[in-house]
Amino acid sequence: MKSLPNFVLAGSWFRNQLPEHSSRPPGSTFDWDRILPSRHLQWRQCWEDFQCARLQVPMDWLGTSEEAGRAVDLALVKVEASVPVTDASYGGAVVLNPGGPGGSGVQQVLKGGHAIQTILSAGPDFDGSEANHTKYFDIIGFDPRGINNSRPVLNCFPNHLESAASTIEENAHGMIGTSDTSFDYLWASKRAMAEGCSKLAAEEGIAKHMATASVARDIVEIFERHGEWQANEAKRLIELDTALSGDEQQMIEDQTAYISGSEMVQYWGFSYGSILGATLSAMFPERIKRAVLDGVADSHDYMAGGWTSNLNDTDLIFAKMAEHCWEGGANCALWNVDGPAVIAENVQKVMANIMVDPVSVPGTELHGPVVITHNDLKRLSRAVAYWPLRDFPFLAQIVRSERAKRYLSRSLAS
C-alpha cells in the first residue's frame, strides 16, 4: 500500500531533526578566532548584518579558587538598533538568553534576533497613532561561559562526530516509555555521560564556574561594557556631526555618559532563562531596568535539583489543544463531532497502534527511506508541547493520515 502524502512530509521532518541539522546556525560559518578577546566591547561585522565581539571576563568572579586569574572569552552577537546611540529614541541594549541551560544565545539571535527586535522596538500604538514612547534597541545574544563559541568550552565528547553518534544512538533506543529497554538504556547512558563529563570538567576547570550566578555576573559585565562602548560611540559620532551646537553636543554626552557600576540591565530570558533572570534580579535588584521572564520555570524546584514540577501541566496542554481543535471545526484535521475527549482519545489510539505497527515511508528526492515509530511521534509530541501553534497542525495531519490508512486497510481486508 502506498503511504499517504503527509507521511512523506513526516519523513522530511524526522530526517531534519538529526543533531547536525537542528543545531546549525543560518548563513555561512564565522571564524571567531579572527576576533581578539578584549575586556572592552569591540564590535566587528559578522555574517551579513550582525556585529560580533568576544568579551573577556574573569573565570572566577570571587577570586577564591585555583582558577582565580584565568579568563573566559564570551562570544557575543548583536542586531544593531536602527538609530545611532546619539538619537533620543535609542533605547539601549537588550540581552537575551534562550534557556537550556546551555542554549546558545548567538544562535538565538542569528535565527530570531530581528524578529525580537521588531517586537521590542517602536511602532504605532494600538489606535494606529505613532507611539509617544518611541525606542529602538540593540539585541544582544551571547554564548554562556563554557558553551558553544565561548572559550574555554566544556566538551563531553572528543569531537562533533562522537556527539552526533551518541544522539543518534539515543534516538534509536527511544524515549522513556517507547520500548521495554529504553529506560534501562538511558539510565546507563546518562550514568556514563555523568562520570565521563565530570572527569573532563575537573580537568578543564571551567565547569565549577558555569553556575547560574556566574552567568548573572557576566550579564551585568556585558551591560557595563556596553555602557562604556555607548559613551565612546557617542563621542565618535559627535565629532563627525559638525552641525551640532555646543548645547546639543553636551546634551548627548550627558545622555550617553558611562558611570561605572551603574549601567542598568535590560533582559529577556526564555525557559531556563527565566531562572537566570530571577537569579540576576535577586543578586542585582538595583541594576534591573526591565526584565522579561518568558516561559517561567519553578526557580525553587530547579535550584533544589529535583525538577519535579516540569511536567505538571503537560497533559493540560494537549487537552487544551483538543478543545481548540473542536472549536475550530473542519479547520482542524482531527475535528470530531463527539467533542474534545474523542479527539484526544483518537490521538492516543494512533500512538498505541504505531507502537506495534510502525509506518514505512519510501525514500524520495528529499530524503531516504524512513520508518516512523512510536518514539518519533513522542518526539513530535514533545515539540508540540513547546510550540503548539507551529507543530500541532502538523501532528494533527499525521494522526489523521494514520487513522485514514488503517481504516482503508480494514476496508480492503473485509
UniProtKB/TrEMBL annotation:
Superkingdom of the organism of origin: Eukaryota
Stretches assigned to coiled coil: none
MF-aspect GO terms: hydrolase activity
InterPro entries, per database record: AB_hydrolase_fold, Serine_prot/Carboxylest_S33
Keywords, alphabetical: Hydrolase
Family note: Belongs to the peptidase S33 family.
The protein, known as: Uncharacterized protein
Taxonomy of the source species: Eukaryota, Fungi, Dikarya, Ascomycota, Pezizomycotina
